[in-house]
Design goal:
The complex is a heterodimer of chains A (499) and B (263). Chain A has 499 residues and is of the alpha+beta class. Helix content of chain A is 43%, strand content 30%. In chain A, strand 12 and strand 13 form a beta hairpin. In chain A, helix 2 packs antiparallel against helix 3. Chain B has two domains: 45 residues, no CATH class; 206 residues, MetI-like fold, CATH 1.10.3720.10. The chains are: A alpha+beta (499), B mainly alpha (263).
């Protein structure tokens, strides 16, 4: 019995040990394994992938003189040319003919210039003479009219004097019995003294003369009186005086008219001659023709060939054999010494993170198929309309020796946000009716020791990319372990195990 | 008369075994049925045992904690109590009396009285919240010393004298003569300690906060995440374990009690 009991006890103990192991294994399988990460302080990188063609950053146009006859084009599109290499051959005969024509034209222009210059000189001389004559005419008019005015003035003074004298004597005859001689003489003297002054004034200033009619108004009264009392002689004198005055004023008016006319003629003659630039214009034409001749002579000297002004790759040929060279560029050469450029077009939404200065990683191949990589920056971003849709034209410049021209490269634009305090891998995020949430681990002391359990924490996403999302600080802090991945679906309060 | 005696016996057995039957019935009852006192479940199920034994690793943690505590305490008690009791039998009678009285006084003190001083001592020794905080105070228990003392003192003096005459040293007398004779008393100490410490609740609740150090007795109360069936299964399982050990040591236990009671 005792042995049996010992046996049972041993079996019991062994069973318990075995079950302990089994339950532990079962528990470890039942608890989901999770990977955790602490929130990081970092910048969120926004990456936009695109493709583009490498093009020449600087395209140099090659201009020829207009109207040259093209015999042969010696550089085709896409062909690499070096500086000074022949790219075009001109027609020999037609070029020679063209040169001769230009030389004739040049000689003609020289003659035309001479003619134009002599005509201009003659015109200047004529103008000078006219001015001189006009000035002389004016001086003559001034002298003659001044003399006439002076004569008229003297006549007027004489007429007045005689009239005054006659008037005085007439008055004396009338008032002789009543008035003493001395007084009468004094009055007459006073009066005669006043009138010459008035007459002088009127004679000196042409425009005041009509105002001096005060004398005229007084004199008619006096004349009327004398006419009434004196007789026909006084009346005659008065008429002569008025005649003289009228004559004087007419002379003044005539003088003014003549002087104005002479002045006007002088002014007309003094108008400067219109600038005659025909000689200069012809001179310019002559220079141009000379340059053209020199250029054609240069072509002839080079064996009727045109050389490339710079090394590069012929991007466009804009003329044809047998035709005349255009006024615009004849060739476009991509200059391989300058930076290359890549232009890509992106949706406005996709490209919102791309701006001037955004970092871009470019991957592509060289001519020998060797893989190459370049880290550059966006040169410009422009909003344009392409095929009726608004898009962004993004230009990136890069050194010429990185990728071969016209090859296709992949571009990866990377724009970094501001520094966020709390960034979590996007795989940690879940969503329910209340919004976005993550699970964080809490340590719980249980019978099995310190165990981790999942706790749901709702978060506000501030920014995100394909790998990380920045969340507002508060619910999630730096020291929390956020569950990134889980081997099994977990719920709030579930026990979890770290990887 | 004989039949009546048999009937009484059966009734007594039923009454004695009723708690065990009740636990067994409860552990075999489904969760929907377990709300009342059911002795014979309508739809017996072993799901509680499956859950307990396979899905709840905590049960085994607590089980092995209890086993560890009991083994450590019993081993410690025997290591202290047996030599102490042997020493008591060989000192002067006056001093022995004083020590025994003091020992009895300590032994009868309930845990509630010792709780605060024990807590303060353990705190000063930094033994709170660790298994040693439970094991050490119980290792120095007074009761095993008394049991072993009475066992040694009840041994015939001639037995020890003859050994001494035969040239045995004091250690040989203790080790080779008295100790084998005291095995029933040791068994008694083991059973009493097993019963007491297998079911201890107050000490771990007071001195241990870390649940991973808890004994099995703290498994069921308050652990609402397990169903009643699981708790019944656990209780039955443990009862069987204790019953097995008790049955194993029953013979020695009876002898030990009779040896002690001769005094």
């Amino acid at each position: 019995m005792q042995k049996k009991l010992v046996k049972i006890l041993i079996i019991f103990t062994g069973t318990v040990i075995l079950l302990t192991i089994i339950s532990r294994i079962g528990a470890s399988f039942a608890v989901p394994t999770v990977s955790v990460s602490k929130p990081k302080r970092m910048k969120i990188a926004h990456r936009v992938e695109s493709e583009g063609e490498v093009a020449a950053g600087f395209r140099r146009p090659v201009f020829l003189d207009e109207g040259l006859f093209v015999e042969r084009i010696m550089a085709l599109e896409g062909e690499k040319v070096s500086e000074g290499q022949k790219i075009l051959k001109l027609d020999k005969e037609k070029t020679q003919k063209q040169l001769k024509e230009l030389e004739y034209e040049y000689d003609q222009l020289i003659l035309q210039i001479k003619t134009a210059k002599s005509e201009a000189q003659a015109e200047r001389n004529r103008h000078g003479t006219t001015v001189k004559n006009s000035r002389k005419q004016l001086n003559l008019a001034l002298d003659s009219t001044d003399r006439e005015v002076k004569q008229a003035k003297d006549d007027m003074k004489q007429a007045r004097k005689e009239y005054d004298k006659a008037l005085k004597s007439s008055k004396e005859k009338k008032e002789e019995p009543a008035l003493p001689d001395g007084k009468e003489e004094n009055d007459a003297k006073d009066e005669s003294e006043e009138n010459p002054d008035t007459g002088t004034d009127a004679g000196d200033t042409d425009k005041e003369n009509p105002v001096n009619g005060n004398g005229d108004k007084e004199n008619p009264d006096v004349g009327e009186d004398s006419a009434d009392s004196g007789g026909n002689g006084l009346k005659e004198l008065e008429r002569e005086k008025k005649e003289a005055e009228r004559s004087y004023y007419d002379t003044l008016a005539k003088r003014e008219e003549q002087v104005l006319s002479a002045q006007s003629a002088l002014e007309d003659a003094s108008v400067p001659l219109a600038v005659n630039t025909s000689a200069e214009q012809l001179d310019i034409q002559k220079s141009m023709a000379g340059d053209k001749i020199e250029q054609i002579k240069e072509y002839i000297k080079n064996g009727y060939c045109v050389h490339s002004p710079a090394g590069g790759i012929v991007d466009e040929v804009l003329l044809s054999v047998g035709e005349l060279s255009p006024a615009t560029a004849s060739f476009i050469i991509a200059d391989v010494r300058e930076d290359f450029k890549i232009v890509v077009y992106e949706d406005v939404e996709k490209g919102k993170y791309i701006s001037r200065g955004t970092e871009v990683n470019i991957k592509g191949r060289l001519e020998n198929s060797e893989f190459n990589e370049y880290q550059g920056k966006v040169h410009s971003v422009r909003k344009i309309e392409k095929e009726g849709e608004e898009c962004l034209e993004i230009t990136v410049y890069l050194p010429p020796d990185i990728f071969s021209l016209s090859s296709y490269v992949s571009l990866s634009f990377e724009d970094y946000s501001e520094n966020y305090d709390c960034c979590i891998p996007v795989s940690a995020f879940n969503q329910d009716d209340k919004g976005d949430f993550v699970y964080v681990t809490d340590t719980k002391q249980t019978v099995l020791g310190d165990e981790l359990s999942a706790r749901k924490v709702y978060v506000e996403i501030l920014d995100r990319n394909n790998e990380y999302a920045a969340v507002a600080q508060g619910p999630v802090t730096d020291d929390m372990d956020v569950i990134i991945t889980s081997g099994r679906e977990i719920e709030e309060g579930n026990r979890v195990r770290k990887e | 008369m004989k039949r009546a005696g048999k009937g009484m016996k059966l009734l007594l057995i039923f009454v004695l075994f009723y708690p065990l039957l009740f636990l067994l019935a409860g552990s075999l009852t489904g969760e929907m049925e377990i709300s009342g006192w059911v002795l014979f479940p309508q739809y017996p199920t072993a799901v509680s045992y499956v859950e307990l034994l396979f899905d709840i690793p905590e049960f085994y943690v607590l089980f092995w904690n209890s086993v560890s505590y009991v083994i450590c305490i019993i081993a410690g008690q025997l290591a202290i109590a047996v030599p102490a009791a042997w020493a008591l039998t060989n000192i002067r009678p006056a001093l022995r009396k004083v020590i025994i009285v003091a020992d009895i006084a300590v032994a009868v003190l309930p845990f509630q009285v010792r709780m605060l001083p024990e807590y303060l001592v353990l705190k000063d020794l930094n033994l709170l919240d660790c298994p040693a905080g439970i094991i050490l105070p119980e290792v120095f228990s007074a009761l095993p010393v008394l049991i072993m003392y009475y066992s040694f003192s009840n041994q015939p003096k001639a037995l020890k004298e003859s050994a001494r005459v035969d040239g045995a040293t004091e250690f040989q007398v203790f080790y080779k003569v008295s100790l084998p004779v005291a095995v029933p008393a040791i068994a008694t100490c083991v059973i009493l300690a097993l019963l007491e410490y297998w079911n201890m609740i107050e000490q771990p609740l007071m001195f241990i906060k870390n649940k991973s150090y808890w004994p099995l007795a703290l498994f069921s109360p308050g652990d609402a995440e397990y169903g009643m069936g699981v708790v019944f299964a656990m209780a039955f399982f443990l009862s069987v374990f204790v019953l097995l050990i008790f049955m194993l040591l029953q013979k020695y236990f009876e002898e030990g009690l009779s040896t002690i009671s001769k005094e």
